[in-house]
Write a structure and sequence with these properties.
This protein has 2 domains: 111 residues, PAS domain (Beta-Lactamase), CATH 3.30.450.20; 67 residues, Arc Repressor Mutant, subunit A (Orthogonal Bundle), CATH 1.10.10.10. Strands 2-1-5-4-3 form a 5-stranded antiparallel β-sheet. It contains 8 helices and 5 strands. The chain is α+β, with helices and mostly antiparallel strands. The chain is 48% helix and 15% strand.
Length: 202
């Protein structure tokens, strides 16, 4: 009976050598059910960016804000997308972490006939390669962004608020909102995160 175990050990060893996607599984009440090693490492990187110098103070094992916000969006979507087939062509995306080495979060819901409270949330996490780093010059050409819109996108990638962007560009918050509205139209995005997903993949 020892033979199958050694085969499993070999498989585990091979799997550990390959840095694949991070995988997180949660219940609809946000209880963590599974988190692989890669997800744990990537979550630490996101937390370090979210908390800056206070990263050490951030409670160990706490899920990054970007990830919990994405889970909230999945739970909302599960109220509408109640069948497994509703999720076949649908996912929620968010870009988090260091803009120079961003981490792409993809969120999926696994509905349950028993209702949303029995559903599962699955998040995959992967570092975007260097080639997919923010290339605002390419994005500007592809989406026909103005110089000011390009500057807004660069600051969005830093995770800045509308107020911070307004201060940096010496314009009003209302003007920033208008720019973001135009950028959303041009990139066919519906959220600030959606803009970044489009731009990172430009």
């Amino acid at each position: 009976m020892a033979e199958p175990t050694s085969n499993l050990d070999q498989t585990d060893a091979l799997a550990d050598q390959r840095a694949g996607s991070g995988i997180v599984v949660l219940s609809a009440s946000m209880q963590l059910l599974h988190m692989n090693r890669q997800a744990s490492e990537l979550a630490k990187k996101i937390n370090a960016v979210e908390h800056g110098v206070n990263a050490a103070k951030a409670a160990h094992g706490v899920l990054p804000t970007a990830l919990t916000e994405l889970c909230g969006e999945i739970v909302k979507a599960l109220h509408i997308r109640t069948e497994a087939k509703d999720w076949e062509q649908f996912e929620l995306k968010r870009v988090a972490g260091d803009p120079n080495q961003p981490i792409l979060l993809r969120g999926f819901g696994l509905p349950d006939r028993g209702g949303v409270q029995h559903a599962r949330l699955v998040i995959t996490m992967e570092e975007l390669g260097r080639k997919q780093n923010l290339n605002t010059e390419h994005a500007r050409e592809r989406f026909q962004l103005t110089n000011r819109e390009q500057a807004v996108v660069e600051n969005l990638a830093k995770g800045w608020t509308n107020k911070e962007i307004a201060n940096a560009l010496q314009i009003t918050e209302q003007t920033v909102k208008e720019h973001i509205k135009h950028i959303m139209r041009k990139t066919n995005a519906t959220t600030r995160t959606g803009i970044l997903v489009q731009v990172f993949n430009a």
